[in-house]
Amino acid sequence: DLFTVTTKTMSSPNNDKAPPPLIMKDDSETANQIQDKIKEKLTLDHPSVLSSDENLLPEYIKVLICNGKPKDAMRDELDTFLNSSEGDDKAPKKSSADFVDWLWDLLAEVAKQQPTQAAVKKEDTEQRKDNTREDKKEQKRDREKDRESKKHKSREKDRESKKHKSR
Prior knowledge:
Structural class: mainly alpha
């Protein structure tokens, strides 16, 4: 299962300045599933950071991903939270670097299962074209209605003026 939380980190050469291997909107289903996996991983490795609002840090991390935060910047952002989990004797100490390595591996796996950006872009373009066609048809219908309405009003005025003249 793609979304099973793993504790080992796959070894792969990573560019620390590159954005995450997956681009998504923060309100997408994929982003929400990743947020759930982040929460599970934090629960396992850093339970003390989820004390008061257990969704706050996972949501923050999701937003960092969706905003394209590079790996090194993500590690720096999360150092404050993950490298200061004191009094956490139940879980082994794990660093933000370990967490971000796991996160990048998860994102790479999800990215492999997602349609390519070119396919998404093509689909978006086709959808926009369809929407534009529909919008144009609707605008044409509206203009025709306006013309008919104006014709009708003009005829009414003519009738009214003829009535007044005949009196």
